[in-house]
Write a structure and sequence with these properties.
single chain; 458 residues; alpha/beta; Rossmann fold; 2 domains; 15 helices; globular
């Protein structure tokens, strides 16, 4: 069994080779990479960072929107033993400075001139920062000393690989489960960015726990459209790295404006989203129906009622009566099929986490054959925590604790967690780390919850 994400990556490359691994929409076209190309480009990026002086344990930042260079930098950095962290492209220069200073990053990849200026401004107070790698050179002053183009980084890595072809694999093999893989910056309740330390073993514990809940959630014939920022723990671990672990093809949407078009074009079988996205889809359908003739509105309301009753039978683990099954087939053909078609027509399930979601919305998607998995997690739990199950669910509940995660409720209702997928503490903040845990080692999440008699978390 793989113990690091580096081992997972290399194993999948050997297994899938020239099959499509990941792609990103740029304008009206898609930039693609097979598993072999993904690995080779990550090797060049990783050895490029190595040429810049990064070594095992050094921190590498990425300040960019989602793009192919993001994932090459991520897997390349992890491969040489660096601890890689993302910074949201929307944050201001002051917050970038705080994060770079706290992390002690030796290098940072930035997307363009706008992000370059943020990193430049932070350099004076970030003594460890030696290099800024810029992807889009337009409008940037690249001196290939302090500010280096991404293309130059790749050429340096390519040259080092040519001179020492087994170096990347040697460095990757030297990384163990106790070595830090990433820092996940979160502001929490204080507003001060804190870097949650997540080791390779912590990552693997989360991925394996997700897979243990229901292995058939993901097959290597599946594909997923990702659209949340890779700087977000939910997109980076439960979506991106879990997809890698399962051999799932990932399509990175162009942006939120092209998301629906991208979903219709790529026809994903899996979709990860925040509840707000589901709410907007549901509200849009409600608005469209409200503008239709009364007979159509009545049909929609009838179909929704049928869907609610079918969902309730499944929730109670009761057989769906024959008459209700026939009604559901009619409702699906006349109403719910349109929702499936709008989302590409192949989605089996979608995961919604991060906020509560209304039962009527969950039932609506379920009736369309798109099972909504509700979950809960946070940066400090590597994105995972609890997850509902296709065979054991209740709309409104975020499911049961993932295997290996111990969750209990404090007297004041706070959710307390302990286990292998829980972070190691906040980087460079021993006092904040100490205050985040109970005396018996449980992380105090700050979230309020309760278990029902079945063990489901609400």
């Amino acid at each position: 069994m793989e113990k690091t994400i580096n081992q997972v990556f290399r194993g999948q490359v050997k297994k899938y080779g020239d099959r499509l691994a990941v792609e990103k929409r740029i304008g009206n076209s898609w930039e693609t990479a097979t598993w072999n190309q993904y690995y080779e480009r990550s090797v060049f990026a990783g050895l490029g960072f190595y040429e810049l002086g990064l070594r095992k344990g050094d921190r590498l930042g990425i300040l960019s929107e989602n793009r192919m260079e993001w994932v090459y930098s991520d897997m390349g950095g992890l491969g040489i033993g660096a601890c890689v962290f993302g910074i949201y492209a929307t944050v201001n220069k002051d917050e970038v400075e705080v994060i770079l200073k706290n992390s002690g990053a030796k290098a940072i990849v930035v997307e363009n001139a706008v992000q370059l200026e943020k990193a430049r401004a932070a350099m004076a107070n970030s003594p460890e920062l030696k290099a800024i790698v810029v992807v889009e050179e337009k409008g940037c002053q690249v001196d290939n000393k302090t500010v280096i183009s991404f293309s130059s980084l790749m050429e340096r890595g390519r040259a080092r690989h040519g001179a020492e072809s087994g170096l990347f694999e040697k460095l990757a093999d030297d990384v163990g489960p106790d070595d830090l893989a990433l820092l996940q910056y979160t502001s929490g309740t204080t507003g001060v960015p804190k870097g949650a330390m997540i080791a390779h073993g912590t990552l693997m514990a989360n991925i394996l726990a997700l897979d243990a809940v229901k292995p058939q959630y993901g097959y290597d014939t599946d594909n997923v459209v990702g659209f949340l920022p890779l700087s977000h723990i939910f997109e980076r671990v439960p979506v991106h790295l879990y997809a890698m672990f399962k051999g799932i093809t990932k399509h990175m949407a162009g942006n939120m404006d092209t998301l629906v078009e991208d979903i219709q074009n790529k026809k994903p079988t899996i979709l990860f989203a925040v509840p707000r996205v589901l709410e907007k889809i549901y509200q849009k359908m409600q608005l469209q129906v409200s503008q239709k003739p009364p007979v159509v509105q009545k049909l929609f309301k009838w179909a929704q009622g049928v869907g609610d009753r079918v969902s309730l039978c499944k929730e109670r683990k009761e057989p769906v009566p024959l008459g209700l099954r026939l009604k559901h087939r009619i409702a699906y053909a006349l109403v719910f099929k349109k929702l499936q078609h709008a989302l590409g027509g192949r989605i089996r399930w979608m995961c919604a986490a991060g906020a509560p979601i209304a039962r009527e919305i969950v039932n609506f998607f379920n009736a369309a054959g798109i099972f909504v998995l509700e979950g809960w997690g946070m940066s400090e739990t590597t994105g995972g925590g609890t997850l509902s199950n296709l065979d054991d669910f209740s709309p409104g509940s975020v499911g049961r604790p993932l295997p290996g995660l111990d969750i209990k409720i404090a007297e004041d209702g706070e959710i307390l967690v302990k286990g292998d997928m829980v972070f190691r503490g906040y980087y460079g903040m021993p006092e904040e780390t100490k205050n985040a845990f109970t005396d018996d080692g449980y992380f105090m999440t700050g979230d309020i919850g309760m278990f029902d008699e079945r063990g489901l978390l609400y």
